[in-house]
Amino acid sequence: MLNVNKLIWCGCFSIASAQAMAQSGIETLVITGERSGASISGARLVDADEFQPGSRADAAELLQGVNGVQADSRSNYAQDTRITLRGFGARAAFGVRGLKLQIDGIPLSMPDGQGQFSGAVLDGVEQVSVVTGPSATLYGNGAGGVINLKTAIPQANYISIDTAADEDGLARHHILGEFHDGAMSARIQASKLNAEGNRPHASAEREQLGAQVYYQFDNGIEAQWRFDKERAPLLQDPLGLTQTQWQEDPYQLNSGAEFFNTRKSIEHLQNAFSLRQERGDQRWQIALWRGDRHIQQYLALRGDALSNSGGVVDLHRSFSGGNGNYTWDFELANSPASFTLGGEWSSMNDARKGYVNNAGVAGDLRRDEFNEADNHDAYALLQWQVTDKWQWLLGARQSHVELSVADYFIIPGKNADDSGDKKFSRSSETLATRYQINEQISVRAALGSGFETPTLTEMAYTNGDKGFNNTLDAATNRQQEISVDYQGKKLTLGVTAFAVKTQDELVVDQSNNGRTTYINATATERKGVEFNSRYAFNSHVDLRLALNYLDALYTEGQFDNLQLPGVAKQNHYVQINWSPLGNELLRLGLNGVHRGQVATNDNNQVKAPSYTTVDLSVSGKFKFYVQTDWWIKLANIGDENYVGSIIVNQTNGRAFEPASGRNLAAGVKFGYEF
Questions:
Q1: More confident residue, 150 or 11
Q2: DSSP 156
Q3: pTM value?
Q4: Among positive and negative, which fits the CA dihedral 60, 64, 67, 73?
C-alpha cells in the first residue's frame, strides 16, 4: 500500500495539467503510483526494459503494445508518426491532432491542438505513460488522450556514443553526456540521422540537440531547465499511392513527388524552466516555456491561382506558455483529502506565407497571413481517500480558446479577404472512483466530458479556396469506462470497457495534393474493450500482451453506421522476451502485431487490408573497460506487403503509405562511467 500523502499527491497531479513540467503531472503518478491500470487516473505505463531494440528515429517504436494507442509509421519523415488514441486524432493528415504530447511533462502540443514528437531526442526515454478516457478530458482542449515520455535524472557521470543502421539506408548516430554532482545533475545529447527511405523520393536528414539541467535546493525546491533543438534541412515527401498502384508495386515512385519536388525543412527550438515544491501538506509548482519553429514545405500542386494559397508553405511560428498550481492536504469527514487549484495559458503566433510551386522552385506570392491561437484555462481537483480501499476524484476545467487569421494578401476583385476569428469557451469534467477489493484486485469506474476545437490549420481552408472556415465548431464528447485490474507477483491483468459519444466530430472533408479541409460530422460513437497482461514465467522468460477492440462508427447523417476512417477495429500486440543465460549478456525478443483493416475515407469504399507482422531481435550488454550494448533486429520476418499508414479522405485516392518489407537493422553503443 502507498502511504496516504503520496497517494493523494499522485492522484491530484497525475491529471492536473497537460503542460506540467518534469516529475509533475503524469510523472508524479509514475514515481509514486502503482503499475499500469492500478491508479485512479487509469494511466498505462511501459518501462524501458519492455521496449524492443531500435534506432529511436520514430516515436512509434516506443508506443507499440500500449492499450488504446494506434501508432502508424508512415515511412515518411516529412509527415511525422500517425498516432491515435481510441480513435482520437485519426483525422490528422500530418502530425498529431486531438492529443496532448509531452516529454518530461514539457508540452510538445500547441494551444490549438497540433503537436509532434519530432522536436525532441527520443534516446534515453525510460518510461511511456498514457492516459485515455474520462481522466484525459481534464487536460483541456484536444485531450482525447495524453502521452508523456519520461527520461531519468542523471545519477552518475557518464558518456556514450551509439550508431544504428538498416537496409532502407537509415544511418543514425547519437552522443550523450550525463553529469551528477551533489544537488546538480545535467544531460546533453545530440543525434544525426540520414535515411534513403523505402521508396524513391523519401530521403531525410535530421539533426537534434537536447540539454537538461536539474538542481535540488536545500529547502526542497526543485528546478529544471530543458532545451530542445531540431534542424531538418531535407525531408522528402514520397506522397501516397492509390490502391491499384500499391497492389502493383508498393515501392514505386509517385510522379507528382518528383515533378513538384515535394519536401519539407524544419528548424525548431524550445526552452522550458520549472520550479516546484513537493514537501509537506502544501505544495506548488510553476513552469514557463517558449519556442520557435520554422517550416518550409513544397506540396504536390502549383497553387498559382490568385484565390489559391500556393503550393509552397513558409511558416514562422513562435509559441509560449505557463502553468502554475497549488495543492492543500486536509481532512474531509475524518479522511484524508487533497484540493488543487491551477491555471494555464499558452499562445502561438504564425507568420504564414504561400508561394507558387514552379516544379520545386518557389515562385510568386499567393498567401500572406498572421495567425494567432491563445488558450487560457483554470482547473480544480478534489481527491478523497474515503477509506484505505476506496478513492474518489472530482475535477473540472474551464478553457477559453481564440483562433484568428489576419490576411495581408488581398487583390480587390480577384482575391477576397480571408481574415477571420473564432472564440471557444468550453468546460471539461470528470468523476472517478477506485475500490481495492483485496491486495491483488481493484475495480475502477469513471465518467467525463471534454471537447476539441479545430486547429488553425484545419480552419485555414474551405472547399473552393474561400479562406477561413468559420463554420467549424468544437467537437464535444462524453466518455465512460469501467476496469478491473489484477496485480500479482508474476502476473498482471487488466480489462477495460469504454464508450465515447461525440457530437460535431471534426473529420476530413477533402484531402487533395497536400491541402485538407474539414467539417463537423453529426455524431460518432466509439465502443471498445482493452485487455493487457504481463507474465513472468521465470527469471528467463516474460510475456507482454495487449489486445484492443474498437468499434468507431458514424451514428447519424449520410455515413451512418460506417467506420471512422483511419481507425482499426482490431489492434493487437504480443511480445516475448527470453534471456537464455539469465543475465544481460544475451536477450532474444519476438513481437507480433495484428492490425485490422482501416477505411481510408468516410464512405468506406476503399480500405487498407489487415495485416500481421512478426519481428525478431537479439541484443545484449557486457562490460570490458567500457559498457557495450548491441542489438540486431529482423523486422517483418514474413516480408508482409502491408500499408503502414493511410492519408484520410485523400481526394485523388492516393491514400496508401506503404510500410517496408523484410528489413535488417543493427546498432551498437559504447558507454563509460567515471
A1: 150
A2: S
A3: 0.90
A4: positive
